[in-house]
Amino acid sequence: RRTAAAKRATTTTTPAADPPRGREGAVRSSSAAARAARASFSSSSSASGAAMETDLAALRGREDERVVREAADAAAAFTTPAPRVHVPSVRASPERLDEYLEKLYEDDIKIKVEATLHIAALAKRVETLEDILAHPNAILAVARTLREDGRKSVDLATNIVSVFFALSNYSAFHHIVIENQLGDMTMRIVDLEVKRAEDRLESLHEHGPPDEFSLRRHDAATRKQDRLFYVCFYLLLNISEDPAVERKMKKRNIVTYLCKMLERRSVDLLVLCVTFLKKLSIYGENVQKMTELNAVARLATFVPGDDVLLLVTLRLLLNLSFDDAARAQMQDAGLIPPLVRLMRHPHFQHVSMAILYHLSVDDERKGAFAYTNAMPTLLDFLLQVSDLHAAPELIALVVNLTTHPRCAEVLCDAVVGADGTRGFDALASRAIERRDPLAMKVVRNLSQLDDVSTKKRFAPYVEPLIALLKSEPCGSDVMVETLGTLANVPCAEVDVTDLVISHAVLEFIATTLGDDRGCEDDVALEAVVFVGAVACDRLAGELVSLGLCERVYDMLSAKKEDDEFVLQIAHAAGRMLRHEETRDFLLRETQIAFYLVDLLQDKNDVVRKTADLALDVVMDVSEDWAVKIRRMKFEAHNQEWLEAVEGVSLFGGGGEEEGRLGEEGHGELPRGQYVDEYGEVYHHDEYDDEYDDEYDDEY
Q1: Fewest Cβ atoms nearer than 10 Å: which of 108, 449, 573, 638?
Q2: 3-state SS of the chain: helix, strand, coil percent to 5?
Q3: CB atoms within 10 A of CB 32
């Protein structure tokens, strides 16, 4: 038997019994256990009386457990139930159900309102719902009354929709709601009341500012409408479990009506409508409709606000933030500063940080974070969290923002602790001491910035970073991030040559790349970048003797399908071609010039520019190679035409079997021979000087 408290809790429940909860997915009015119990009901009012009594008896026997469990869940959950729709309390007896139904045939609308109020009171209680379902005419009579007289009275429509709302709380009874066309009638009621509200508001201000009496009357009508909207949308939310029903609602512009409800003032109604919109926002076409209606601007007024409304609003914004147009509206609505402040609130931290992460994906929006308290706040979180893998939104947001120069500067200059430690020093020390790959990724982002002051901050940490690099297993995330950081540090203000020599870093790189077991692509790529970064006159001989020049060249052929590899190898080659020892080796022992010319035809614009810059370095220091490179550029640009004219490849005969330009199998023309624009081969002494000058000017 129920306790007295449980009975009071049950008997005071209104037709809009369970308000929406702010959790992911469709919001439902009961726990899983309660829904399982409700599912045991008979699926139609025509079921046998014995089966109905058995099902309802089982439900009543388990009601104690349901009440206790749901009370515990409500106490533990952050989101508290929203206030329920107020309906006048009446004493309704199941023995008088026939009397209530007979009154539905009266002409007086007030009598019908009173009768439906009693029927709604019976429907909201589980123990009396049996009588309504078992009655052969109750459901049909109530549905007919709504169809015929629902437009005449808001109270009548509210009472009748509340009856079917009580049924819609149970999945087993959804077919009763749908068979009686309550979905269609509810949508018609919503459409009618929306138009009435617009007309009422227009007439209120038609003759100037309204007086106090008109305002009170308007407010009373608005409150009545809010109650009707609440039960209507809650019923639609419940039956939208069926995707087919939800698609029909979408065709009837349910999104438009819900967005209009965002202008109402009832918190209960707002929570419900935002929850419904969140359920619909998993479909792109609904998100597009919300952005067209500028729903984000209205949602922004709820941030910050009532805790329950705020949480469901943030979850809806999170779903919308996957759309480019919605993200643009969020920035225009000024949502970034309040979301940054919400990061410090434990209940909203996760969802607000996820929204900010999506906003930080777009480069044009990253700058807005620099003018908030985002970077100091994120730095505090970074230093407090022991395992950054457990906070993916946090580290992802920081990684995105530290690619923006202004945000990175704010983070580096932030003061941490009472001793005045700067943010950069605290972050670098944490990453090195804890060997944290995610923190190292942030440090690496900072090293990529071209700002001189940021580069200088790395000077004290180069040696610890080298020690960390050599102590890590090959291929580990920490090794990759550390090597990438060291590759970004060298510049005019930070000379790492002495440390590279004293710590034998190039020997370590050569050993890593020459590992018989093979080197992972991530490590190889960072090694190429590092070699290009540290290439200088003092290290040129070591690069040649350790075989790093040859290894980098070999990777150009092995990784030719990977644009990132090709780009970084071309850049490293350009750097090594600046220095005599490495340049002589590459031009004498490899076909690097042919490869670079071939890259001038690459589809990637950045690769083409990098290869062209590397060739310019060679042309500036060697006149012989300048002529050769101009000739190779000409052939590469006109290769198809020249081969059609001559029938052979001008890089040494051959045919299609010899492969792409610059690949193995192409030889050079004999020294001192050149090709003119018509494909003719000439000796140097046969060149006309005037023609040679014109040729030089063209290329």
Answers
A1: 108
A2: 70, 0, 30
A3: 9
State both tokens at 393: 């939104």
CA distances in angstroms from 475 to 464, 503, 524, 542, listed in the order given: 19, 20, 9, 24
- Mapping DSSP onto H, E and C, the string for 337-353 reads HHHHHHCCCCCCHHHHH
Cα–Cα distance measured from residue 307 to residue 654, given in angstroms and rounded to the nearest whole number: 76
pLDDT at 646: 66
The H-or-E segment that residue 673 falls in is strand 673-675
The Cα 380–Cα 401 span in angstroms is 15
Task: Say how far apart CA 396 and CA 405 lie, in whole Å.
Answer: 17
The two tokens of residue 43 are 């699926």
pLDDT reported for residue 623? 84
- Residues 355 and 299: their CA atoms lie apart, in Å, by 14
For residue 637, give every residue at least 6 positions away whose Cβ sits within 8 Å of its Cβ, in sequence order, or none.
600, 601
Residue type, 158: T
Please report the pLDDT score of residue 64 as a whole number: 45
Cross-strand partners of 674 = 682
Whether the link from the prior residue into 94 is cis, omega within 30° of 0, is no
Q: What is the pLDDT at residue 652?
A: 46
Question: Which residues does the chain have with pLDDT short of 50?
Answer: 1-83, 85-86, 516, 648-679, 681-699
Element (H, E) at 55: helix 49-61
Residue linked to tokens 């180069």: 462
Specify which residues 649 forms β-bridges with.
Answer: 653
For residue 270 the two structure tokens come to 């707002």
Which tokens go with 394? 């946090």
Give the CA angle between residues 609, 615, 620 to the nearest 5°.
125
Whole-number pLDDT of residue 647: 57
- Joined together, the tokens standing for residue 104 give 């539905």
Q: What integer pLDDT is reported at residue 61 of this predicted model?
A: 47
DSSP letter for each residue of 651-668:
TTB--GGG-STTSTTPPP
Tokens of 661: 């330009």
CB hemisphere CA count around 17 (13 angstroms): 26
Residues 6+ apart with CB under 8 A from 80: 74, 307, 308
Nearest to 238 by CA among 9, 18, 14, 12: 18
- pLDDT of amino acid 594: 86
Evaluate the CA torsion angle 190, 192, 193, 199 in order and state its sign.
positive
What are 681's strand-pairing partners? 675
CA atoms within 13 Å, Cβ hemisphere of 72 = 6
Please report, for residues 111, 166, 179, 327, the alpha-carbon distance to residue 124 in angstroms, rounded to integers and kept in the order given: 20, 6, 20, 42
What length is written for the chain?
A: 699
- What CA–CA distance (Å, rounded) separates 507 from 530? 13
Rounded CA separation 459/473 (Å): 24
- pLDDT of the residue at 92: 82
Cβ contacts of 442 within 8 Å, gap of 6 or more: 382, 395, 398, 399, 402, 427, 431
Tally the C-alpha atoms within 13 A of residue 191's C-alpha that lie toward its C-beta.
Answer: 10
Helix (H) or strand (E) holding 422: strand 421-422
Nearest CA among 148, 134, 129, 118 for reference residue 44 = 134
End-to-end CA, the chain: 97
pLDDT tens, position by position, 218-263: 889 999 999 999 999 999 999 999 999 999 999 999 999 999 999 9
**Burial class (CB within 10 angstroms; exposed 0-12, middle 13-18, buried 19+) of 335:** buried
